[in-house]
Amino acid sequence: MRVVIQRVAQASVTIDQKVKAAIGKGLLIFAGIEHDDTLEDIEWIARKIVNLRVFDDESHVPNLSLQDINGEILLISQFTLHAMVKKGNRPSYIRAARPEVAVPIYNKLIDNLQKELGKPIGTGTFGAEMQVALINEGPLTIWIDSKNKE
Predict the structure, then answer these.
(1) Which residues 6+ apart lie within 8 Å of 30 measured at CB?
(2) Catalytic option among 14, 80, 123, 125
(3) Which of 24, 45, 60, 123 has the smallest number of Cβ neighbours within 10 A?
(4) 140 assigned to some structural domain
(5) Domain at 110, CATH number
(6) In 3-98, where does DSSP find H-type helix?
(7) Is residue 74 in some structural domain?
(8) Residues 78 and 129 sit within 8 Å (Cβ to Cβ)
């Protein structure tokens, strides 16, 4: 599983001209699911996200986590995070999980993030055409891959 995490002042997702979810201060997360992702990947990513110390303390040092600031999460599925562009100019998405595999994993990721955070999170709709708006703070953007735990 790959995630791109952006620290935001606010973010929202709109589908069919209706706001599906909106958050204030917190993290906007784009998640790409691979066909071989497991419960271990989901649990590791969820714990890592909720405990990332990327919010400033009173000394303007990023020492605080989402839990410390009572922050929010907006989670968006994005299979294009697994794009491969090694050959030619048209991306290949062969590593991305098909919907029948990805949807249950995405739903489990939602459950785990809510459990780790201790409150509901905002989400997009899997497979939908979405418009995502954000005000990035920092900017701070982090990429994490559960298969490469660095």
Answers:
(1) 3, 4, 76, 77, 78, 81
(2) 80
(3) 60
(4) yes
(5) 3.50.80.10
(6) 39-51, 66-69
(7) yes
(8) no
pTM: 0.92
Query: Which tens digits make up the pLDDT trace of 42-97?
Result: 999 999 999 999 999 999 999 999 999 999 999 999 887 877 888 888 888 878 88
Residues written for the chain: 150
Helices (H) then strands (E): counts for the chain: 3, 8
Does residue 80 carry a catalytic annotation? yes
Number of domains in the chain: 1
- Write out the residue range of the structural domain in which residue 126 sits: 2-145
Rg of the chain in Å (alpha carbons): 15
Q: Is residue 103 part of a domain?
A: yes
The answer to whether 69 and 23 have CB atoms below 8 angstroms apart is: no
- Look at residue 82 and tell me if it is in a domain: yes
